[in-house]
Amino acid sequence: MFAAYGSYHKHDTAEAKGMSGTANRFTEAAAAGGNTKTAVFAGGCFWSVEGPFEKLDGVVSVVTGYTGGHTTDPTYEKVSAGKTGHLEAVQVSYDPSRISYNQLLQAFWRNTDPTDAEGQFGDRGTEYRSVIFYDGKEQQSAAEASKAALAAQGKFDKPLVTKILPVAAFYEAEDVHQDFFRTHPADYEFNDVASGREAFLDRVWGEDKELKALESPYAVFDKADRLKSLTKLQADVTQHDQDEPPFRNAYWNNAEAGIYVDIVSGEPLFSSKDQFDAGTGWASFTRPLEPDSVIYREVGGFFSDETQVRSRYADSFLGHVFEDGPEPTGLRYCTNSASLRFIPMDELAQSGYGKYAKLFQEDDAQ
């Protein structure tokens, strides 16, 4: 089967079936009103990567193509021969009001083997490597935090080797390679089964393989009413992006076990297990408690370029993320105590955060 798969996969079809992918993508983008962002992922054969993203609500279109190489005229034959340095990849256009970048990252992890540095499943070679291409610090920070969170889950026996690299020129693949899961459904299914991709993903992810819609009990609340209870400092920080004084705030040296939630919405943000002393006078963490709990926003002026960290639902200003933190992420989430409320470990259940108690059960037993 694998021998047949290898020879079939290198075979190119003369022409695509149905309406051209270019026309389809033009129509879809127009329907979205232009309010879209893009994300680029390489996860092996782009036939297999395209389908899972196309099926997500909020994704406007997915273009298969080539990126990360050293030539300006990549073709399927040249890339497959390893002559261009390009990877097979997909460029995902999505509506951020309907699906988040982190949800796209979660879909990516659920459809790749992030421990394979030599290719993906039955596809071997540099063109099939697993790479996340980020566009700006917002995507970079989100991708690095997501990778660290996945590593912490312990789903894989080997280290995660998926690279996180800046975007490069993206070249659209030939029309036959667009919408392959629709135009060649039997071939698409054979490709996933024969390569071993489907069996691997089923084994690793099980019932969690399909990306679930982003739902949260913190998404709907009376923000105006909540703001009335804030102190002036809390309002200045969360609503006006002002940093509080270092070393003169509630949590910069907090050593108690528990989690930190948004002062406005109550959404969980950080865990004391990821807190460390950065020597700055602000509470610092290596990663968010949940990958989707924070969003990133690039800000800056003539002399600086920083990435803000904000809570997803309350849009509270939390602080900034920097690339000088310790392992396992190498990130430092420098946060304002005025944006946070601390829930001690032994009060999690009664405060409505019982699901996080298991994070501290091992420490409590010791």
Your description of this structure?
The chain has 366 residues and is α+β, with helices and mostly antiparallel strands. The protein has two domains: 2-208, Peptide methionine sulphoxide reductase MsrA (Peptide Methionine Sulfoxide Reductase, Chain A), CATH 3.30.1060; 223-365, Peptide methionine sulfoxide reductase (Metal Binding Protein, Guanine Nucleotide Exchange Factor, Chain A), CATH 2.170.150. The protein has helices at 2-9, 21-31, 46-54, 76-80, 101-109, 137-153, 180-183, 185-195, 197-205, 223-227, 232-240, 358-365; strands spanning 37-43, 59-67, 87-94, 119-120, 123-124, 130-134, 163-166, 170-172, 258-262, 268-271, 275-276, 283-285, 294-300, 305-311, 317-322, 332-335, 340-344. The protein has a six-stranded mixed beta sheet with strand order 7-6-1-3-2-8. Strands 11-12-16-15-14-13 form a six-stranded antiparallel beta sheet. It has a three-stranded antiparallel beta sheet with strand order 10-9-17, with no helix packed on it. Helix 1 crosses helix 8 and helix 5 (101-109) packs across helix 6 (137-153). The longest helix is centred in the middle third of the chain and has 17 residues, at 137-153. Mean pLDDT is 85; it is low at 1-32.
